Amino acid sequence: METVIELDYIAHSFGSESVIKAIDMTVDKGEIFGLLGPSGAGKTTLVKIIVGILKPSEGSASVLGTPMPSLEKMKNIGFMAQSDALYSELSGRENLDFFASIYGLSKSERKEKIQEVLEVVDLTSEIDKPVEKFSGGMKRRLSLAASILHQPEVLILDEPTVGIDPVLRQSIWKELKILKEKGTTIILTTHVMDEADKCDRLALIREGYIIAQGTPQSLKQGIGANTIEEAFLHYGSAVQ
Amino acid sequence: MRTAAIIKRILRQLRRDKRSLALMIVAPLFILTLMRLVLDGDSYVPEIAVVDLPSPMVDALEEQEAEVHHMSEQEAHEELRNEELDAMITWDGSKSEVLLEGSDPTANGAVQQVLQQAMKEKTAQPAPEPELKFLHGSEELNLFDNTGPVLIGFFVFFFVFIVGGISFLRERTQGTLERLLSTPLKRWEIVLGYLGGFGFFTIIQSIIIAAFSIYVLNMYMSGAFWHVMLITFLLAVAALSLGTLLSAYANNEFQMMQFIPLVIVPQVFFSGIFNLETMEPWLRAIGKVMPLTYGGEALRDIMIRGKGFAVFSDEVYILIAFSILFIALNILALKRHRTL
Ligand SMILES: Nc1ncnc2c1ncn2[C@@H]1O[C@H](COP(=O)(O)OP(=O)(O)OP(=O)(O)O)[C@@H](O)[C@H]1O
Ligand SMILES: [Mg+2]
């Protein structure tokens, strides 16, 4: 299996506050890898390091064999931030058009791709409204659409399904599976336990450490737990 | 290419935000109109050179509120042109002739008042009225005409600073800056995109403000219109690059507003609206680090003195240098958000 993302004992601190501590992990091509952890655990910080926005204070992160940050590799990464980074004055379509041109898609490619991703996130009918009139879930879906426009090899999603109803969540997961089949490597953060079950592999993060990682199955079996939640609580207390 | 995408997006956003658009165009027009209505003169000690003037007249002048210098006609001409003098009085054997520098109506008024006083007090029978001539401008030049060019520059600077700075700030607070930095966009492409988007808009803004001032408010104008455009455009670019740079040090819109008394208001004092000659030299030196000082000077050269490019070229280069400096610092400041 080809390794796509490799974190080599990275640590990160904001000023004197150490947020990520010695995280060492790899993600293979075509995997859906979940980062599970409570609020403030450092999930967002970790994905920003992978994306290349933050440079780790220690250790190195590499994506597709190139140390990050690398502008060249950023072309192959799609990122959906935890907060919807959208231009509220512009319509949904104009937002997508802007992000698509940033990735250098031609006019006809943009048109085609925008239509395609809109169907994935089920936003086709309301896309010409200004984003400030979108509901929270609609903005979330638009952010997701913006992150897959350029068909990235690596997709990084920071809490992609917050505020999205169960039906749509299921259809998004279906789409993620399709992307995975096409060879896209996906990392997502979540604190929804049932969502964690759908990942190929998981890393449980707490206070900047990975307290356990493996397939959901193995994490549960190893300690005889029935749910990821139980497993999480188990490993969490072991650390303390 | 990617810069073009940013430019297009900014123009679209501006078009949606009608209120900010109005702020940048209508507010200056409104304030300029008000200024036109309220501006008035005040007292000022003029510097006058006398050339071969009969001594009773010189004595009379020296008793007035004026600094009287004795010099040759050639020297006086030179100093007048360098704006070190306000007026020169010559004597042709039977009557005096007064040549005013002319670009500052406060000074013009003061010189004329001094002359009238001197005449009234020292000459028993009414002497022939001295002949008045102007090196620049004319008798009609009033305070509005004098400060107008600076005001045009100031409003362009002020509103571009605010609107440009806040848009860039919002880019950060709404998370889109981070989103942009997760794409292969280079830092300079973002800064240039902003410059392009707002730059395009400020050209239109400058045309409207300058045309309104000159053709509707009848501001005195003896130079080339496109020279005025050039300077206002350069001022706008300096304002935009300074605004976006400083927005990095503000956490919200309100903090951005706090830069107004720190950065904008002081520039007004040094931009030529107030007479700099009465200022302490060290104080005057502060004005040297402010873009509006140069913009104001160049605009007055163009509009009041009708000067050509050669005269204000230094100011043009300095304004360009300011912009380049701010842009470079801006690109560096973005490093805080992404090291690459
Ligand atoms: N820019 C920053 N400056 C200083 N501290 C920060 C910064 N960003 C995050 N932190 C701190 O780092 C820690 C981890 O934050 P992070 O956003 O990575 O958590 P998270 O796991 O994503 O939490 P959540 O599930 O709530 O999104 C927190 O304690 C936070 O206060
Ligand atoms: Mg987070």
Automatic annotation (TrEMBL), chain A:
InterPro entries per record: AAA+_ATPase (IPR003593), ABC_transporter-like_ATP-bd (IPR003439), ABC_transporter-like_CS (IPR017871), P-loop_NTPase (IPR027417)
Protein name: ABC-2 type transport system ATP-binding protein
Keyword vocabulary terms for this entry: ATP-binding, Nucleotide-binding
Pfam families named among the record's database cross-references: ABC_tran
Every ABC transporter domain range: 5-232
Species whose genome carries this gene: Thalassobacillus cyri
A molecular function GO annotation: ATP hydrolysis activity
UniProt cross-references to PANTHER family, sorted A to Z: ABC TRANSPORTER G FAMILY MEMBER 20 ISOFORM X1 (PTHR43038:SF3), ATP-BINDING CASSETTE, SUB-FAMILY H, MEMBER 1 (PTHR43038)
TrEMBL record, chain B:
GO molecular function list: ABC-type transporter activity
Spans through the membrane: 21-39, 150-169, 190-218, 224-247, 259-276, 316-334
Keywords from the named record: Cell membrane, Membrane, Transmembrane, Transmembrane helix, Transport
Family from the record: Belongs to the ABC-2 integral membrane protein family.
Natural source organism: Thalassobacillus cyri
Subcellular compartments: Cell membrane
GO cellular component: plasma membrane
Keyword Iron-sulfur appears in the UniProt entry: no
Pfam families for this protein: ABC2_membrane_3 (PF12698)
Membrane topology: Multi-pass membrane protein
Top-level division of the source organism's lineage: Bacteria
Protein name per UniProt: ABC-2 type transport system permease protein
ABC transmembrane type-2 domain residues: 108-337
Major subcellular location class: membrane
